[in-house]
Amino acid sequence: MNDFMHDIELSERDQAMLAGEEGRAAQIALRIVIKIAVVQGAKKLLDISNVHVGGSIYTGQASLKVIETFAQLGARVRVPTSINAISIDRLRWRDQNVDPEFAGYADRLAAAFEAMGANPIFSCTPYIFPDSPKLGDDIVWAESNAIVYSNSVLGARTNRHGDFLDICAAITGRAPCCGLHLDENRKGNFLVNVPHLTNLDSSFYTVLGYLIGKYAGSDIPVISGLDEKPSVEDLKYLSSTLATSGAVGMFHMVGVTPEAPTLSQALGGSQASRTLDVTREDLLSVFTKLSTAHDEKLDLVLLGSPHFTLGDFKVLAELVDAKQASGKCDVLITTSQFVYQQAQESGYVGRIERFGARVSTDLCLCMLNASMFPSSTKTAMTNSGKFAHYGPGLIGKGVYFGNLQDCVNSAVAGKRVIEHPRWLQ
Fold it and tell me: What is the tens place of the pLDDT at every residue in 106-119?
């Protein structure tokens, strides 16, 4: 046994796996899990019940070789495992001006995960799927918004992980026992007081998350003062921007999230180490600064980062009824095949397509690249704080941020239309 393994308490099954009794792939995977555990200061491993693989984005030959090698060695996942959004829309990439060589590599990466038994949901919102983890479950989830959502809203337990630990955990069923898996590390310590506001929508939660993330660092925020109960979509956008502007792994929302029925319980019976009193001016500043574009003319409206949920489709369908997008403005929505089918059956897709929007599945907005759009494209708009943050670098275009109503109004006008947020009126 290598020296680094002496620092970790191993079960009999761990030792058998390291001896190769469960195959070469499991042996390699467990060695990686143990090495990461040592780096993280864990003293033992724990059993996990679910994995969401985030290393499904094709970033080059090295990452592809690692995953294909595992598959070729006969690796199989030992716990229910799902796959994050991938780099292409498998059904539509040919119509999206995607390079065939790149598409081939991206498809091979996805296929290797599938060969190991992972579920090809190709979604960055695994928490809206049936049989999602429950309160207290130890899991290994990748994809930043899903990590925050699972810890906070579901009450399942996962750390922020880099690529490869997720698939190694899936192959072995084991993960380092440290960080947010431990009760003592899940207590809130950063109190965030929110002013009394009404008419809240997802743009408020997007802005609030981005603001908190900038100040939180790796602390666990406790959000207090909200009077309106947030929806799944609101919590999705909050989780997304908390993880975009900061290194937040979970949050508590008093009276909403399962480990925060009261402020005292959210703080673990202690006092907050620091406090942020959010002001209306703070929120308006973030709302405004999320827009980085300057041209009034609008070429693109991009929705679905994180993936559109059925609730998002319902709201959008109601907003676009009897309206028509400008022929000069492309409207693209990304979601999973699972939600797309639900939205089709509910009639939402037809209503949205009649408006002039199109839907793409399997990939997320943060996997887009400039080649997917006409060279004349200059300015985009989104309701996603995550894409407003990353978009200019990903697609090389200026990006405006607004709520979903703003995005619809702008698509109709073919130019930027951003109203003062209702929740600040």
Answer: 999 999 999 999 99
